[in-house]
Design goal:
single chain; about 475 residues
Length: about 475
């Protein structure tokens, strides 16, 4: 995992990056000197057991005194109260910073936590966070998780960033024995068969957990528009609901998301304006970049997260690093929440798109001599990838009206998912299947291109 520290532009440029690895570990932080006193006003936070600390590696374990077991009556109850107060304070701060710029938010984060906060850098557009930190003029740290399966272009970006900003990124690696056990028992690509969560847990989540044990706060590049179905409620700042910080226990770590309210296009405008180095994979169609086997370019009309774990449902496209910010989508197009409003609108609403029930699909599967061919999209209203193709699918339905091909939709999540997987080849949402008028079996659309021309070519090839 990687820290980078720059106390001032002059100090940064005077240090020699090439020599820092040969010095003792503490010297990896360049010219930054440990503070003699706590950089935070004690009145600004209600964090329990707050104490000053010199610069230390992110993976440093906190010192604890476990020799005495406190009684619940004297210690446990006050501890719960204090942590509740911490969460309430940062919720208020998040509201105050709702309209603040990323630079202002970054400055506030670094000011409040000093040595005890670090930027999580993934090698994608997270480099914007480093640029914002650099612009504040304050000392800052940067860390990254090296899963062992990153693209070569990502490693080259790491090196370029270090040289541009005069910093050293300290990498956090997965436990070698855990990786060895996983690969020996399940192979190198088991995630294609049983999901990516296990591999991510070994290569990313556990190393991150170790890293955060050495901090009281961390900074991420999460944005609400990265994954509208799961990250739409990411706050500017929060008490981390999942990971523990230096003092241990839930509530001991604060999470900052300076670009939560920023659109992806605006982030890229900032990167271009400031001439910030970026991953060369972006120019090849990659937007969201992770490990090499689990990342691919996205096509026109696809959402940026669709290039990650493309063989899984939209709800599964998270690695676990930001589990506490994942929004559960349990609502339906016909359900009404407590406020009396329908939270998720249905898709593909058009007079040219037939809505199929379970019985209607059963009939299609059983018909031996269909009078017309059918094109059916298997979808879920909450799926942002289904939402992204709505316009093209409706346009296709208009183009095929009266052609002898019926265009339909079948909602295949919830209780219908198992049926769709067994009978309709559902893999992930959306899945498109074609029922020819001369064949019993349905044919799955094999391409990720969901524009009108590509879908029309598929239909014409089977007519």
């Amino acid at each position: 995992m990687a820290f980078s520290v720059s106390s001032s532009p002059a100090a940064v440029h005077s240090s020699s990056p090439s020599s820092s690895f040969e010095q003792p570990r503490a010297a990896q932080f360049g010219s930054f000197q440990p503070l003699d006193r706590c950089p935070l006003p004690t009145s600004s936070l209600k964090l329990s057991r707050r104490r000053c600390a010199a610069v230390k590696p992110l993976n440093a374990e906190p010192k604890r005194n476990d020799s005495i077991v406190p009684s619940a009556a004297t210690v446990v109850a006050p501890e719960v109260i204090e942590k509740a107060e911490v969460e309430e304070d940062f919720q208020k701060l998040a509201e105050e910073l709702q309209n603040a710029s990323p630079l202002e938010i970054m400055d506030k984060a670094l000011e409040k936590f000093g040595n005890d906060i670090a930027i999580a850098f993934s090698g994608a557009e997270d480099v914007a966070l480093i640029e914002y930190a650099h612009l504040t003029g304050r000392p800052y740290r940067v860390f990254s998780l090296d899963t062992g399966r990153l693209n070569p272009e990502t490693y080259r970006l790491f090196d370029e960033v270090e040289k541009k900003y005069g910093i050293r990124i300290e990498y956090m690696f997965p436990d070698a024995l855990e990786v060895q056990a996983l690969v020996r028992s399940k192979g190198l690509f088991s995630f294609y068969e049983d999901g990516h969560q296990e591999c991510c847990r070994v290569r990313k989540v556990r190393p991150l957990r170790r890293a955060l044990k050495g901090l009281r706060a961390w900074i991420t590049g999460q944005r609400k528009d990265q994954s509208p179905g799961t990250r739409s409620e990411v706050p500017i700042v929060q008490v981390d609901p999942v990971f523990e910080g230096l003092d241990g226990g839930i509530g001991s770590l604060v999470k900052w998301n300076p670009v939560a309210n920023v659109k992806g296009n605006d982030v890229w405008n900032f990167l271009r304006t400031m001439n910030v180095p970026v991953n060369s994979l972006h120019a090849q169609g990659y937007i969201s970049i992770g490990c090499e086997p689990c990342t691919r370019p996205v096509l026109p009309g696809q959402h940026e997260r669709e290039g990650r774990w493309w063989w899984e449902d939209a709800k599964a496209k998270e690695c676990g690093l930001h589990k506490g910010n994942i929004k559960e989508e349990n609502s339906t197009s016909n359900s009404v929440n407590a406020s009396g409003t329908a939270p998720v609108a249905d898709l593909f609403t058009s007079e040219n798109v037939v809505t199929l029930s379970r019985q209607g699909v059963d009939n299609l599967l059983k018909l031996e001599n269909r009078q017309e061919a059918w094109l059916v999209v298997l979808y879920a209203p909450w799926c942002q990838y289904c939402q992204a193709m709505e316009g093209s699918y409706v346009e296709l339905a208009e183009a095929l009206a009266g052609s002898g091909v019926k265009v339909a939709k079948f909602r295949a999540d919830r209780e219908e998912k198992a049926f769709a997987q067994q009978q309709l080849q559902l893999g992930s949402f959306p899945t498109i299947v074609f029922f020819p008028n001369h064949s019993l079996r349905s044919i799955k659309y094999p391409s990720e291109n969901r524009d009108v021309a590509s879908l029309m070519a598929f239909v014409n090839a089977l007519q």
